[in-house]
Amino acid sequence: MHAAVRAEGVVKRFGPTTALDGVDLTVRPGEAHALVGRNGAGKSTLVSVLTGMARPDAGSVTFGGEPAPPYGDTSAWRAKAACVYQKSMIVPDLTVAENLYLGRFPGTGPIRWRELRARARELLAEYGVDVEPGERAKDLGVEQRQFVEIARALSFGARLIILDEPTARLDAGGIERLFAKLRELQEQGVAFLFISHHLQEVYELCDTVTVYRDARHIVTAPVAELPKAELVAAMTGEGAVADGASAALVSQAGEPVEEREPVLRTEGLALAGAYEPVDLAVRPGEVLGLAGAAASGNTAIGETLVGMRAPDGGRISVGGRAVRTGSVPDALEAGIGYVPEDRHRQGLVLTRSVAENATLTVADQLGPYGTVLPSRTREFAQGMIDSLDIKTSGPGQEVTGLSGGNQQKVVIARALARDPGVLVAIRPTAGVDVKSKDALLGVVRRVADGGAAAVIVSDELDDLRVCDRVLVLFHGRTVAEFGSGWSDRELVAAMEGFVPGAGDGVAAGKTEES
Ligand SMILES: Nc1ncnc2c1ncn2[C@@H]1O[C@H](COP(=O)(O)OP(=O)(O)OP(=O)(O)O)[C@@H](O)[C@H]1O
């Protein structure tokens, strides 16, 4: 049987950077194949090559044994492979049906909406996707949106679907349903290339895994034959590391944290529709986790702390001084550093250099009387590049040219540039590879150990493990608090609304209401 896709000896250069250096990849029909590698390994570049978005400098790509379409023939490429990105490619203001048939409305003459909708319903049913064709795309949840994108790709004839971090915005139930759907489609012969930094998902879903490192192919093996430690070793090029390396990240501070005056406090902080009044006290040296699934209110609290959202009521203070709520400049001035979740929207000026982005908040410290000295900016940025291990050709490189994970490190560099007294990080390791993840969380830990208070807002267990204390939110309320030493099961259960000790099947919100 021919491979669903076979790439051989693919080379892709961007100026002086070699993003792919003669790599191979073979995905068989019906296979779920994981492609993993550290940030900057070349994964996204390969996706661009496999979807006809980038023309390789050398090498060949075949689909089902036939040569790939000519570069630029978009409709021919669409019939071969499609990538479902973290960011939606569908048009928010159009309906599901319109999105499905965008650019290929059936027949000529005026569009017959009723017929279009009926066809869309048929198509969705064919792939077992339970979405109403008349619904606007913007009203869909992440999960439904991904199903629509997959159905759309399959309807063009593509038999290779690439999923780029598809679980990043799904909760546990959503991940389960996505995986079930993928397995169903695998049985119909659809092949998946799964790109993820979540290695446990690779083990759960995939048959085969390929590792790239520094633009090169390192290994391809059945997942069952590659233990996690060896997989990580292949990714990093270092000896196998033991599981739970991040355990070393737990607080090292001398004086007991409980005896210090809190640096960050909130009193009665509330935002209707997002979260109920919450009193927080985070001491110097402490990392507080705000855990919760999507829409639990944890992100909204984080965004309120950094001034992105104005609360309905309540107070925030840093070091005893009141902070004006709802103002980002005031939060910054008060010493609150912010690592946002969405680096594209909130984090970076993509067309500026690494150095400029890293120093955006400290321009006042880089030269006399409102001037910015380029040499000082570069020097400052170089320090950040070294300490956070940012993979870049230098401080002058535009951040658009960095891989996703390395862009996230620039965001963190910027938050740290002002020596914040309080660091608030929202899902700080989204899209970051295993090793950088430990490095980034290690930075948060060090900032706290250096006397600052840190708040990590996340539903990622690895992020939360670094915390000294974790508050769990569900439907806007704090439903549980854990010190260190919680088990994955109890924390996940609390995030899903099951209060520890309350007995199975009892949702926290419901017990309190009844
Ligand atoms: N448009 C571009 N211009 C310049 N360099 C680029 C461009 N796109 C990618 N690169 C470089 O190519 C290399 C591979 O990047 P790529 O985005 O493929 O990595 P990745 O494995 O997808 O990483 P991540 O996990 O962080 O998304 C990186 O060094 C990156 O800086």
TrEMBL record:
Annotated keywords: ATP-binding, Nucleotide-binding, Repeat, Transport
GO molecular function per UniProt: ATP binding; ATP hydrolysis activity
InterPro entries to which the protein is assigned, alphabetical: AAA+_ATPase, ABC_carbohydrate_import_ATPase, ABC_transporter-like_ATP-bd, ABC_transporter-like_CS, P-loop_NTPase
Source organism superkingdom: Bacteria
Transmembrane portions of the chain: none
ABC transporter domain residues: 5-239, 258-500
Matching SUPFAM superfamilies: P-loop containing nucleoside triphosphate hydrolases
Entries under CDD domains matching the protein: ABC_Carb_Monos_I, ABC_Carb_Monos_II
Pfam families assigned: ABC_tran
PANTHER family tied to this protein: CARBOHYDRATE TRANSPORT ATP-BINDING PROTEIN MG119-RELATED, GALACTOFURANOSE TRANSPORTER ATP-BINDING PROTEIN YTFR
Protein name: Sugar ABC transporter ATP-binding protein
Species lineage: Bacteria, Bacillati, Actinomycetota, Actinomycetes, Kitasatosporales
